[in-house]
């Protein structure tokens, strides 16, 4: 009788481990799904993320969010630069030709827009 109970406990333990493994896989799947959603919302293709440099990823995110959220604060040349950068970063051949200086140019545009936003916010707060 003791051997039968021991075998039953081992079987239940094995099933428990299988359920834990399935749960872990589902949690990883959900986490990956959420991560990919966030990446797409920030203008980054999840498929190409692992093969890109950090500066390129940062510049892609900045360019996408600037065009999406701060279009009114951009000049025509700045908007064109950001659009051209995003088009080049989405094309595999053109992406290889992008340099770090092009990424820094996008980041500098982002910094300039950030300063404009801060300036207008400060003026609004001083007017109160």
Describe the structure.
There is one protein chain. This protein has 128 residues and is an all-alpha fold. The chain folds into 2 domains: 1-41; 48-128. Helix content is 82%, strand content 0%. The chain has helices at 2-41, 54-69, 76-90, 92-97, 100-127. Helix 2 (54-69) crosses helix 3 (76-90) and helix 2 (54-69) crosses helix 5 (100-127). The N and C termini lie far apart (83 Å).
Strand and helix layout:
Elements: H1 2-41, H2 54-69, H3 76-90, H4 92-97, H5 100-127
Q: What is the H-and-E element order?
A: HHHHH
User: What does the main sheet amount to?
Assistant: none
- Count of DSSP strands: 0
Shape: flat
Radius of gyration: 25 Å
Task: Estimate the strand proportion.
Answer: under 5%
Mean pLDDT across residues: 82
* First-residue to last-residue Cα separation: 83 Å
The residue fraction in helices comes out at over 70%
- Class from secondary-structure proportions: mainly alpha
Number of helices: 5
Low-confidence stretches: none
Q: State the domain count.
A: 2
Tag the structure with descriptive keywords.
128 residues; mainly alpha; 5 helices
């Amino acid at each position: 009788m003791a051997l039968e109970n021991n075998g039953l406990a081992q079987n239940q333990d094995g099933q428990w481990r299988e359920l834990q493994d399935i749960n872990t896989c589902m949690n990883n799947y959900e986490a990956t799904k959420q991560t990919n959603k966030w990446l797409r919302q920030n203008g980054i293709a999840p498929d190409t993320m692992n093969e890109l440099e950090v500066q390129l990823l940062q510049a892609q995110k900045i360019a996408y969010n600037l065009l999406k959220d701060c279009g009114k604060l951009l000049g025509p040349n700045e908007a064109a630069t950001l659009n051209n950068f995003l088009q080049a970063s989405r094309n595999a051949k053109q992406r290889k030709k992008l340099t770090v200086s092009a990424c820094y140019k996008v980041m500098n545009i982002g910094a300039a827009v950030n300063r404009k936003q801060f300036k207008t916010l400060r003026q609004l707060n001083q007017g109160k």
